[in-house]
């Protein structure tokens, strides 16, 4: 369909035209079913979520997709931030395609404390202040839905005009390593992750935690911390401050097989080191999500369909 040509001049000098536009109202105000009135649509594009401005906005008879119209002789935005702005924030966020439709109120794993956590998170998101931000660490076992919730929060922030970047820590390290192998400077990838308003890290603590890996994490956390920028992380490791299992005296000398690994990799603090951990915890709220592993649950339903949904 052809897009109507719009002339600001016509609008400014023809008050009748402006009146007509005002009466019609922007497509965004009409909450059309094509996009539920948000003005953009999401789809999977390869492994990532892609956002495109909805047709209803592009063909809006009031603003012609420009998200501005005349109200009482003054040009005003129909919606702030503009759907095109939100779409570009989502496209820059690198959200996994699998969580394309993630929304806080579509969360379904209530086998644990999911109801309480989603309720708390919606308050947390509402109170989030980008000028005085607080980070978040969402802990819990594998498969309870932490990544889903992270993606839902990231989308919510993009809707408010906050720039976000989603990284699986393990994949980020791989990307940086590939860059090194090709003799590319890795500072671009890192600088992007440091510069964004809110950085989302999935699977914090995962990896081999070599000195190199920890130095990358250190650059990320410290770089952002110094600019008063927060991170929202998920982790499978116990994130609560713990009784110190000594890393410096004793455990390294313990020659029993497996003893060192057990001691060192017990919880998040030990995974990422006290320096990074304390910076993160200082600037973050901690929420623990409990429940069944949905992958196992799905499998169980497939095997024994008569048993129904476990609650
Ligand atoms: Zn419009
Ligand atoms: Zn639409």
How would you summarize the topology of this molecule?
Layout: H1 8-13, H2 15-24, E1 40-45, E2 48-53, H3 55-58, E3 68-71, E4 74-77, H4 83-93, H5 114-127, E5 135-139, H6 146-159, E6 164-168, H7 169-181, H8 187-195, E7 198-202, H9 211-225, E8 231-235, H10 259-264, H11 268-272, H12 274-282, E9 284-288, H13 294-303
Parallel strand pairs: 5-8, 5-9, 6-7, 7-8
Antiparallel strand pairs: 1-2, 3-4
Helix pairs in contact: 4-6, 8-9, 9-12
Bound molecules: zinc ion (2 copies).
Descriptive notes:
With 311 residues, the protein is an alpha/beta fold. It has 2 domains: 8-89, no CATH class; 99-301, Rossmann fold, CATH 3.40.50.300. It contains 13 helices and 9 strands. A 5-stranded parallel beta sheet has the order 6-7-8-5-9, sandwiched between helices. It has a two-stranded antiparallel ribbon with strand order 1-2. A two-stranded antiparallel ribbon has the order 3-4. Helix 4 runs antiparallel to helix 6, helix 8 runs parallel beside helix 9 and helix 9 (211-225) packs parallel to helix 12 (274-282). The radius of gyration is 24 Å and the shape is globular. The N and C termini lie far apart (48 Å). The model is unreliable at 244-265 (pLDDT under 50). The structure holds zinc ion (ZN) (2 copies). One zinc ion binds next to loops.
Condensed summary:
The chain has helices at residues 8-13, 15-24, 55-58, 83-93, 114-127, 146-159, 169-181, 187-195, 211-225, 259-264, 268-272, 274-282, 294-303, and strands spanning 40-45, 48-53, 68-71, 74-77, 135-139, 164-168, 198-202, 231-235, 284-288. Strand 3 and strand 4 (74-77) form a beta hairpin.
